[in-house]
User: Fold this.
Amino acid sequence: MKQRVVVTGIAPISPVGTGKSKFWQNLLDGKSGISGITRFDASDLPTRIAGEVKDFDPNEFFDRKEVRRLDRFAQFAVAGAKMALQDAELDLRREDPKRVGVIFGSGIGGMETFETQTKVLLEKGPQRVSPFFVPMMIGNMAAGQISIFLGIQGPNLTVVNACATGTNAVGEAFKLLQRGGAEVVITGGSEASVTRLAFAGFCAMKAMTTYNEEPEKASRPFDKTRNGFVLSEGAGVLVLETLEHALKRGAPIYAEVVGYGCTADAYHITAPAPEGVGAAHAMSDALKDAGLAPEDVDYINAHGTSTELNDKFETMAIKNVFGEHAKKLAVSSTKSMTGHLLGAAGAIEAIVLALAIKHNWVPPTINYNEPDPECDLDYVPNEAREMNVRVALSNSLGFGGHNATIVFKEFRG
Assistant:
């Protein structure tokens, strides 16, 4: 018999705020977290804006030695895990550590460490490269350090699926719990790629927006004038539990996780498949997994990157899956405010689903001013909407043709 799975704790670390209250209020207020880059000199780059996390102090979570030995992406992950456990009112000292798991992801991993140590190698030689270089850089260290810091001995896995990473991690955590492989899983994604090298690479691909003069207005999903995504950093961490375990300890419950779909385009390394066929397949699979009809869904948190092809093809995919009901759906892209957190995006957006269901509010797509005839759904333009959210889903679509969809619904005993 499959276990029911619920969300009991959340912790966003994002450009619009760290901690659920600040994060959620700023989203509902339509506040952008995008600004000029301060973490490095971007004056010679075509894109000079980013979504930086400016209210995170690692010294609140780690001692000085730990700060030096953790890449920023791992700092985000461990700090977020601590915050999510506190939000879930879960004391791990009372749990069997072998029945608690970690399924976590990062699209890129320790880019800052990679860049810094490469410079050391080139300027000072191999003898000066840090012995912590490799264990700080590798992508599995977010999951690894969460388990080390918190004493978690159950299943521990890392997901690396580009921009679908966070959603895949949440989906795989859901499946692990559903089949009884654990009672609690800390899941989500973390990314800290606001670095000069990462920006040089994305700029070379011409994937990012060049609206540098008005950073807050640069990310404009589904708008006709969109011209690329805004790269951001941060983490989204969720605590998932079997319903039985959550009820036994009287845990707070945000929502129930009911469906997961995971597909591949098998088409192109960066461009989405025409008409969003892979995304449509993922949504259909997730709804089937949840035992729900398209008409049951109230809200979609779209991948909505503010790139020409993604927004057009994701719109087509939604229309293909939902038919006439597509016009009745509320569809918004919170990337209009947070920017694109790459491997952490899906996790942050899973938190949005949980909060939307809990509070019956849907955050807007800001900077939506000039409708695109090819993007003709209800994108909750510019202002948050109070509405009954019983069922919601989130899409994440990554380089390499990775597609992932998760479905949450209102918890009823």
